[in-house]
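ENTRY TYPE: paired fold submission
RECORD: A
CONTENT: sequence, then structure tokens
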Amino acid sequence: MLLLLGILCASPKLNLQLEAGIEGLCKRGGWVETLILVETDEEPLSGRVKAEIKGGKVTALMKVYIPPYARRSFRLILPSPNFPSQLQVEIESEEGERLIARKTDLYPLREQDLIFVLVSDVREDLSFIDGGVISIDRSPLARNQIIRAVTIPPQRIGSALGLADVDLIFLHSYLSDEGKIKELRRWVASGGTLITCKGFEVEGLTPAKVKRSSKPITIKIPSFFSGDLEIADVEPDGRTLLKTLHPGSYPIMVSKGLGDGTLLYIAFDPLSSSFVSPQEGERFWKRLIAYGRSPLKLYRIYDPQHRFQKKTISILGSQKGHPILYLFLPYLGAYVVILSLLVLFGRGLRSFLLLSFLISLALSIQVIFGNRVEVRRFALLRAYGGEEVAFKSEWLSVSSSFSSKVRLELRGRTIAPAMGSQHSLLLHPDRGIIEMKLTPFSGASLYAESTEELSGIGMKIGEEEVELVNDSPYDLSDLIVSGRGKLGSINYLASGVQARVKLKEDLSYQNILNLSPSSLLRRGFFESAFKEGVLNYLIEARLDFILGWMEGIGGEAMLIYRPS
């Protein structure tokens, strides 16, 4: 009894808090970002944090050390479940003793359903829109899209990958954290819609500038609103979507594209007006979603089977070296030949045993020193005019000849297991390292997001040709150019070179597939991206773009450049 009491007293007293997804919401086929908060008392913590989705096959482990009377936060990203489930987080000591555990529910939505997030220090009542139905996306599967609306505090804003399931964010809070602003810009550029309003302008996220103090005026917008509002006197830095009709032409809603997403600004505060009433609120926010829906999501092909990702991982897997059986064949052949010679010349058991020992020794040396770990990758790089960074999505396939522990450096990447992965991940947050233990005849698939410094690429569109500029440090090849609804192509554009490309063919699926790269490997990624709907919005929205291949940023990447 005294021994048990001593053990209990020696165990650290911990407080564990857990937040998963967006108030538990996520989308099937996406990722669940988990925020873990751990507080210690008088005893330090040295152990592991373990996170696992019930019924899933992926477990994330983190080695942690937390000093006494300290508070640490950790973020994990795991694949979302296909059905309602639970996420369980445990803290274990170095000896494997479970110290504390917490569970939280997960509610996966359909891909086409919409998640609307209000970022505010005050929990507002969003029942006027939560659960509403809308049909705005062009996909046949997008009829009766359900809107789920939640409120989160500013500190809950995490990585752009963790916000990937969110469709629209309304920022109703003062935000000065440069890291969070950067992540929100990444999220918008990846296809999100972010709204700011009067009183909560944020540089870099607001497409307007306040010129003078606001003033109460009476406005009338037919079938939309009529009454008194306090309007900010602003200078639009984008396209004006809505103006007042009386008493003057005041811009009250401004839109600006950022990458594949949209920045919106409202020159009044809709949460302090009748727009939040049950009668007006749902109509107002539905119209706002329709105004701001980005082409990337508006023309999205919803894919519950995740064919593009499966195709990408399959292509990467086909690049593997020789199967493990090939490593044994030389030894097996030598074994058979020498054994046949021993039988032919009448050698005895001693020679046979000596031969077996030598073959086993050679095979052991091959296993120990000849184990080859292969990391194959495909990267999709999105760059935009006026931006100094490009947004990188990367799929990695890792395999080894024999059982092996693989270490990968994160290097500023947000990394998560790819769909269907079945391996445990061990993270060292203090060293920026991820570990996986691979077994023979198996591999692991990962997905990562990051930013890369990239500038100097540009395009000037004329009537029948496009002038390309490549002042970046990278050579480009197999380029396809779209301008004014026409297509052209060029085989190579070296760094520091300008070129003119004739626009000949109409922008269409068939014509762009006819310009597929000559390389079989590139063609596989290229055709899959269009056929499985990842890049279809470029054609459906009739956008101007450069699509090509770039060497040098962590390997080869498919580049999509869009002018500002």
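RECORD: B
CONTENT: sequence, then structure tokens
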Amino acid sequence: MEKLLATRLQEKGTNTIRVELLGLSHLFQFPFKDHQKFIPNFHSLLITNGVAKAEESINNRITSIQPRCLVALEGNRLLASVILKPSNKRGTCWSISLPKVFKEPIFNSLREVKFSLMKKSLDLVPRAQTNWLVKYPTDCIDELSIARELGFQPHKIINIWSFKSNNHEPFKKSNSLHTIDNSENNIFTWERINKSNARSLWKLEMAGESVHLREIIDRQLLDIINLSNDYTGLLFCNNEGFSSVIAGLIKQDFPDEITTLKFLRDIIWDNRLNNGLTQVLNKLSLSKNKLFIETNTNDEQINKLFNKLGLIKQSERLLLGKTILKRNRLKSKVLNKTTIESMLQKLTPSNSPQPSPSVSSR
């Protein structure tokens, strides 16, 4: 059957890879029988693609910040897809999901299919100031090599942790943590993210990232507030009337991460985390949803604590970014150089130099 299909496709000259925005016409090519779990996502992406098209048709000067889905086809065979999602409210940074493969190609290699999808993704959002992020498992060699080929640079390796059991209720909407540490007179409280405490959480995230990565993500306070759910918040430590934020959790907003939380703390290790964080993780372990927490691989102290508390390390992922910031800096340097040279030319005297006074003996 496959050989017959290949012959017909070859006769029609349809052996090239086509990458298109997901549409209603692709419903007939999608293998629903073998990918039942993708059906709800497929339907929601059809809607967001339609909304994005409508927004951009009304005003072609703006780029919609609705998530997008691209599909790769070989003839009438739908092979794979990727999802694009903005990482902030202004759409200055977008993330690309790991390519989802539905069928093996006949005429092309699977790597060529993935490359076409990722390459087209970079052209789909026509903004001069768009940065890009991908976060792929370290064993996805093809995807990582394609990302490097397309100009992505590695920034950090991330540990993905999970809990042993998830069978109860998540955090309530009010503060659900109030613990007293009698040995140090510390009172730990957990607060949901709101407008008044979002700046503290924003500062924690900025402290834990490199300057280059902060510029790529381009996070602002409103973005932090939007990354709130029933499991996110800030851990406060109160001691004799003085309150300080020692850790936090925000939702990760990558396309293929639904219940992943990012752990945040200050650069300097705080021993109070040993007691306060234990209470937070105990609460999270009672969630009825499958939760994951990500930490920086280089954060040895927090990784040891997670391991000691019984969390399970599921995988490692590599975060890569692509930006135009470097190109803009180079242009700025050239402009600055030209300006300085023009200034020096203006300072050059037009008359012949006068002889300097001499103090030598006559």
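NOTES ON RECORD B: The radius of gyration is 27 Å. The mean pLDDT is 80.
STATUS: closed
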